[in-house]
Model the fold of this input.
Amino acid sequence: MSALPGPESPPCPSHSTTTATTAATTTTTEQSDVARALVSSPLPLPTTTRLALLVLVAGAGASFATWWWLVLGRDNWPGAQLACLPDADAAPDEVLAGFTGCVNDVRLAQSAVVLCGPLALLALAVLCRAAGRRLSLWRWKATPDHSSALARRLAAVVPEGEGPRPVLWVRGRGVGIRARASGTVRRPRIVADSYLLSQSDRSVDAIFRHELAHLRLRDVGRVRLAMAAGWLLLLGVTLPMVVALARDPGLLGTGLLVRMAVVLVVVLLTLCAVLRVREHDADLAAAADPRAPRDATAAHIGRALAPRRTERLVRSLGLATHPAPAVRLAVLADPARSWGLSSLECLTTGLAAGLVFTDLTLLVAALLPDHTQLAYMVGGLLTGWAVSGVVTVAWWRAVAVGHRDADGPRAATAGAAIGIGVLLGSQLAGRAAGDWVRDTGTADGLATALSLTQVPPVQALALGAVLVAGGALFALWSTSLARALGATVDGPRSAPVCAAAVGLSGLLLAVPLGSWFLFARLTAARAAPDIRWAVIDTPWWVAGALTAVVGALVPAAAARGSRHPGPRGAGRFRPPVLLAAATVLVTAGAGWAAFGSEPSRAPATHISGDSPVSAARTDSPNSQNQPDPAASPVSGSGDRTVPLDQLPVLPPKEERTDAMRADTALVCRALSLGGTAIWTDPRRRADMAELLGGLDDTVLRAASDVLRRDPSGPVDTHALVTSVLRCDLYFRYGR
Done:
């Protein structure tokens, strides 16, 4: 209804009052129109994207816990891997194929077990969600109400023709929350206290509209499912691990406990943020109801009591499940305010990505055992799509409503926060708690080194700087892409174009994320420099990365050209054409970087951990082949002990003793620390093949025979990978 006076209305007291009333009415109408456009937009709402963070963090926690309990903590896995060792000699190719295939099958089985963790968490959360609905009604002694005054008020505000009509349930005890949305999409419910009978009809209608908005936005089931998963993560994963670590902390206990505590805090803060954001979405949906009186929602929120000291403390810690009334009113006054993207949310997104990447990539690596770099690129692609589903969509929304968070400096700052979050998340992951192989002795094949605390500070800072700069550039590119493609709140192509932008963003992030994590893993494992740089110094990787960057810049360049059309009409390109061109180029670049590695290069595989044999002995105390002359003599003999980590390669042939040639640990250490030169240099490859052939090991002798077939030709990758796997088993199990 209009507030303007009709022709026969009494004269207004003053022209200024009329002008103010008209302006207020216009402003309220515009706010309602904006709120209606936002909640009815085909773009995902903020609640939806923030829930993706919980999915990432909960999945990462469940997969790590499953690996810790059902793989690392069980004795049958070492036996299964050692059973892959051949019992008798056979053709070299058959020995290599049988051993490698068997080990890969064991690791694939381990990956399947690890994957069961997130799936079990989801299944249990669904069961708890279904049981929780019934248990809550029983605990509150709630009964259906079809004829009371409250039921009539609910029926009056329910829109016609919007699916099943919700049923009112009145609680017999537990007064305090007034009303809440419950049930499912097919059987919706509004659970209310009888206390509402003492409220005015206007307040009751506002409360019911708010709860109906939750049902209409379909956030009830998803949020309750997320809450159930959070409790399961705490009670079923964290507490049992805490008890086990308290009884037997070992060398990794402290690091694990600290990381688990931090991750739980992240999960809790993210869940509270989701609960607060869903209230803003419901407020906007309730205010957008065309049948609601003007300012009814704002008036009801404004009547809330001032927060007590405890409530203010909880809000200051980020643990409040409902936003403050002042914040809710501010969002109602400026609905576009809720479509921003803060640096804190970007930091949380990066944390989630860092936590989930390693477990996800190790599962992919089990499916691609001979293509480590490709596995990391696939992990980067999946993680990139998850990150883009949160931040790219959020920046798309911000550009669509003209939010200031989409401006260059603010977007760059938020992007830098993503990079910081990825770095922190990678170090907060359970696999970064220490050197699993060294500190547990029998870590499985999925164990890896991730902690950057033991690397030189310059290297750690450089890795962090790359992430920060990359995050800022990604943010600037995402906002530019949204502007170039004409991001809008509604329209038939709004959601499809946004979804295509998310897909393009994931493709663009695949190579940088995968390469960074692989480089960081090799750095944490203290691999040789040439092994680390082999990740990114191939011509195919450089060409692929440059092609992907050029493809990513196509939409922005075309949009810039359309603002300054030339004689040939540069503005004729449409968003689908730009997206198609960019996607083709980015996909081609990512494919070249992932698949185009030279076959003659050593794969980026590193043996985890240190040898259980702590020293290599020489025959003479005065021998010149000892790099550590200060080593103390062994009691009772004239031999000296040389730590293996101080012996990067074996001495020249003329200085080697029979004991050194027969020492499997020493030869494997030389293989591990020799870098790519022992494979790419024919002379050193022949030397390594001779050493492997002199060991009392069927697998390594078979690898030696294959390597000797063509000493100056291309490296047989199968023999290389097999020898690395065999030495890995020897280092972990001592045989």
User: Anything to note?
Assistant: Residues 302 and 590 are 53 Å apart (CA to CA). Residues 92-140 form the longest helix (49 residues). Residues 1-25, 564-572, 598-648 have pLDDT under 50 and may be disordered.
